[in-house]
């Protein structure tokens, strides 16, 4: 939030106003995602304004990360962004009101970009984070000669294990490795908006009562970014991450929010990354929310059978479910009540509403799921995102359930075997040739 002490012009600072002569960004080529981390330096004289700008720039989903930093000595960024606040220099010429934006290499201190913040065809002072992010992506992206050098510097930084300050102990020594950067963290495509489609994305890594599901929250964050890149508006994507993913929240969004918002021509995506669990007595499979307890599944977890029914009852054109969990209780992303033995779970396909639902699961009933440590993702999610972003398209340019599965299955199997284990994703549904996305 902007502080109340800002001058009168701050009301226009993050919005822009009247129509004028500044070129609209629609006349420029669309920016490509860039695998670089940006650090937004303090913007004088208003403390904390760089945090607001960083939050806006993250909404563009064009860079690996965008963070507010306190000084040019920040160690966990590739490019430093400086903004000069021109609000004290207001003149009769609106073009002089635009803030000056400069990008500098965090390694060499070489100036990479310098320009004015634009206002999307408006001619009054503004500081629009998404426009700034787009301009920087055009200036620093893969099509620019600067990018190769920046990418090499980033690779050296990650290889040397430079740690963010939050992970450093008081003596300056790192206490834990940073989360690995992955080539699926930033989508490589951006498709037209699909305003009628919706998604519920759930990721739970650190549970309240059971062991963690490693990388699950990073999985969910990447899935949300990819769905947005494929055209789903951010307002249509609900993320339940960590402690937000309680049983009541999961039930509320599945059984109340989606039915109220979904239209007959909507496609709905449901993604879950976290623990699954079997009931040792009945063999029924459950998704375990953040507050779930493996010893009291019926009262604290969400049954798969109920999930299928809730999503199948939606008045939607189609529903795509992807579960990066397993249900044997043998380990991986699966838990079991203390003292119980692992089971071979057969997912109840009779509970699938065959007419509109497509289900991808990370593993078969007697297997456990694995992760790709070097990518910081589950094996299933990593290749699912690769396929969904175009690697799984067919000859006509469509990604169908079958074409995605044909790409996903052998890649997951091969990677799991390199880890000396078996993992075979499953595809279920009555319409394997139904289109999920078209390129």
Describe the protein in words.
With 439 residues, the protein is of the alpha/beta class. It has 2 domains: 8-160, no CATH class; 198-438, Rossmann fold (3-Layer(aba) Sandwich), CATH 3.40.50. The chain contains 9 helices and 18 strands. The chain has a 6-stranded mixed β-sheet with strand order 7-6-8-12-13-17, with helices on both faces. It has a 5-stranded mixed β-sheet with strand order 2-1-3-4-5. Helix 1 (49-58) crosses helix 2 and helix 8 (379-391) packs antiparallel against helix 9. The two termini are 38 Å apart.
Helices and strands, in order, run as EHEEEEHHEHEHEEEHEHEEEEHEHEE
The largest sheet, given as strand count, sense and whether it forms a barrel, is: 6 strands, mixed
Give the count of helical stretches.
9
Shape field: globular
- What CATH first level of the largest domain would be assigned? Alpha Beta
The separation of the N and C termini measures 38 Å
Category from helices, strands and their pairing = alpha/beta
Mean pLDDT across residues: 79
How big a fraction of the residues is strand?
15-25%
Considering DSSP H and I runs of 4 or more, what fraction of the residues is helical? 25-40%
Task: Work out the radius of gyration.
Answer: 24 Å
């Amino acid at each position: 939030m902007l502080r109340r002490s800002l001058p009168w012009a701050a009301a226009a600072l993050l919005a822009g106003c009247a129509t004028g002569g500044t070129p609209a960004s629609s006349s420029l080529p669309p920016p490509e995602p860039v695998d670089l981390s940006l650090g937004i330096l303090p913007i004088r004289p208003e403390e904390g304004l760089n945090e607001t700008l960083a939050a806006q720039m993250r909404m563009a989903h064009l860079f690996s990360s965008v963070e507010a930093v306190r000084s040019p000595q920040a160690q966990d960024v590739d490019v430093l962004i400086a903004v000069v606040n021109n609000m004290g220099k207001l003149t009769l010429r609106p073009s002089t009101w635009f803030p000056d934006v400069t990008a500098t290499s965090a390694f060499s201190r070489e100036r990479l970009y310098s320009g004015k913040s634009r206002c999307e065809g408006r001619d009054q002072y503004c500081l629009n984070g998404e426009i700034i992010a787009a301009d920087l992506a055009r200036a620093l992206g893969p099509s620019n000669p600067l990018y190769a050098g920046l990418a090499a510097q980033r690779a050296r930084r990650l290889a040397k294990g430079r740690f963010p300050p939050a992970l450093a102990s008081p003596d300056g020594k790192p206490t834990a490795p940073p989360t690995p950067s992955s080539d699926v963290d930033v989508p490589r495509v951006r498709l037209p908006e699909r305003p009628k489609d919706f998604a519920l994305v759930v990721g739970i890594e650190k549970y309240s009562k059971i062991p963690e599901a490693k990388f699950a929250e990073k999985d969910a964050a990447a899935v949300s970014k990819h769905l947005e890149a494929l055209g789903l508006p951010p307002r249509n994507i609900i993320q339940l991450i960590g402690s937000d993913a309680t049983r009541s929240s999961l039930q509320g969004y599945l059984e109340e929010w989606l039915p109220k918002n979904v239209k007959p021509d909507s496609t709905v995506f449901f993604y879950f990354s976290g623990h699954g669990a079997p009931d040792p007595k009945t063999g029924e499979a459950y998704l375990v929310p953040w507050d779930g307890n493996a010893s009291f599944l019926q009262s604290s977890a969400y049954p798969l059978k109920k999930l299928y029914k809730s999503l199948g009852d939606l008045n939607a054109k189609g529903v795509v479910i992807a579960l990066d969990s397993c249900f044997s209780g043998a380990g991986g992303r699966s838990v079991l009540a203390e003292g119980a033995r692992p089971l071979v779970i057969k997912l109840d396909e009779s509970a699938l509403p065959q007419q509109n639902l497509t289900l991808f699961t990370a593993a078969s009933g007697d297997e456990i799921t694995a992760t790709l440590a070097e990518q910081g993702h589950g094996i299933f999610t990593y290749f699912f995102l690769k396929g969904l972003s175009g690697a799984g398209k067919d000859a006509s340019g469509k990604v169908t359930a079958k074409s995605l599965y044909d790409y996903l299955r052998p890649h997951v199997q091969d990677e799991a075997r390199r880890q000396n284990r078996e993992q075979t994703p499953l595809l279920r549904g009555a319409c394997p040739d139904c289109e999920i996305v078209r390129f």
